[in-house]
Amino acid sequence: MASRIALIVFTLLTAGALISMTSLLGGLARRVPGVLLAAFSLVILLTPRSGQLSLGHVGPRQILGVDPVLLVAIGAAARGLPNLARRLGGLRMRCAFILVMVVTQTALGYLIYRNQALLEVRPLLVLIGLIMFLLSLDEGHDLEQLARSWLYWTAGALCLLALERAATSGIGNANLRIVTSTGDLITSRVANASQVAVVAAAGLLSLYENARRSSLPTVLRTVAFFAVVLVAQHRSVWVATTAGVIVLAGRSVRPQQLTRVVGQFTLLCVLLSPVLVVSGAAAKVGASVSESLASVSTTTGTGGARVSSTGQLITRARARGPLIELFGGNYGTPVERIEGGRLVTYQPHDAYVQAFLNSGLVGLGLFLAVLLSLLRGAWRQRGGGLAIITLFLVYSFAYSFPYELAPALAALFSRTVQATETPTAVASETRKGAARRRATLRACQRTREGLPSVRGRAKVLADGQLSSPLVPAKVPTSHSGVSAGN
Description:
Blueprint: H1 2-31, H2 33-46, E1 54-58, E2 61-64, H3 66-78, H4 81-88, H5 92-113, H6 115-135, H7 143-169, E3 177-179, E4 185-187, H8 193-212, H9 216-232, H10 235-252, H11 255-279, H12 281-294, H13 303-318, H14 322-327, E5 336-339, E6 342-345, H15 351-381, H16 385-395, H17 406-450, H18 454-463
Antiparallel strand pairs: 1-2, 3-4, 5-6
Helix pairs in contact: 1-2, 1-3, 2-3, 2-7, 3-6, 4-6, 5-6, 5-15, 6-17, 7-8, 7-9, 7-17, 8-9, 8-10, 8-11, 8-16, 10-16, 15-16, 15-17
C-alpha cells in the first residue's frame, strides 16, 4: 500500500514539474519563436533516412526528437489562446471539434493499445501543436516572414545534407537499399520523403517569388531546390510538386512572367549542361531517375498495389458497423488486409484513409472542411501559399500529413482565414446597407401618403386650412388694432 502511494505521489510530482517546465519554456518560445523553430529544423535535419529520430526510452515508451518540441509548443499555445481564437476566425469551431476528437480517440486508444496509439497519432499532434503555437503568437510577430525565413533556411540545410550524402554514398534510387554501420537496412536515397517535401515547398515559394521579381540569387535558389527534389527520387513528392507548379502557373503567375521564368531556367540548364556531362553527373542522375520511374508499376509500395490495399482497409473498416463508419476506431486499432492469402496488419500510406479509419466520416469531413477552407482562401489570394497547400494536399495521399510543413501552414492560416472571412463580412455589411435603404424608402413613402397631392396641397394652402410644421397656415391679421371688417 505504501509503495503504491509513493508511486502516485512521485507521478503527480513529475507531472507537475513537467507542466511547470513546459509552461516556462513556452513563455520563452513566445518571446523568441525562432528558437523553437530552429530546434524543429534540427530535428528534421537529424532524422534518419528511414524511421524517426529517437532520443531513447522511458520504460516501454519511446521518446522521439519531436516530442520536446511538441510539449513546448503546446505550453506556448496555452498561454496565447485569445490570439489563437482570433487568428482562426470562422474556423474556430471546426478546429476545436477536430482537436477534441483527436485527443479523445488518442486517450481511448492508449488505454487499449498503449504505445501503438501514440505512434499513430504523433505526426498529427505535432502538426496541430506547431500550428497552434504559431497562431497564438502576439501581433508583433510577422508569421509570413517567420515561416518564409524558416522554410528557406531549413530547405537550404537539407540541400547541403543531400549533397553530402550523395558525395559519400551515391545518389541511389527508389529500389536500392544500403546497410548502415549498425546493421540497419535503409533507403539509398539522399533524404526521406518528408525532408524532400520541405525542399519542394521552398522551391515552389521561390518559383513564385522569382516570377514576381526575378534576380540571379532567386533563380539559383529555385534551381537548387528543384534539383534536390529530382535527385531524391521520391515519386510521390514529384507528383505533389508537379501539381503545385501547375496550380502556380495557372492561377498565381501571369503568362509573361511564366515565359520569362522558363527562359531563365532553360538558359541556366544550357550553361550547366557541359559541366554535368563532363563530370558524369548527368549520366548517373539520368540512369537512377529512369530506374525509379520504370519501377512505379512493379513495386508494392506504389501504383495499383497501394490502391488495392487502401480499398481493402476501407472495406474491412466499414464491415465493423455504422458507428465505426461514422466515428472511426481509436488510434492504435489494428487494421488488417489480405496479402498473399494471409491476413496481415497494415497501416495505410494515405492521410485521408488514416483519418477515416481513426475518425470516421465525421472526422474526415472536418479535416476536409478545414483544408478546403485554406485552399479557397489561398485561391483568392493568388500567392505562393496556393502551391504549398496544393503540395500538402497531394502529398497526403501517399503518406501521413507532413508535420514538417506546419510553419508554412500556420502562415497560410493567418493569411487565408482573412480572405475566407472578408467576403462574409462584406456581404453582411451589404445586407445591412440594403436594410437601411429599404427602411428609408418606407419612411419616405409613409410621409408622402400622409400628405395631400401637390395640386391638392396648393389648394388647401390657398384656403389657409392646412397647418403643419413645414408650412404654417395662413392666419388673418389685423393692422393697428382695426378689424378686417372695418
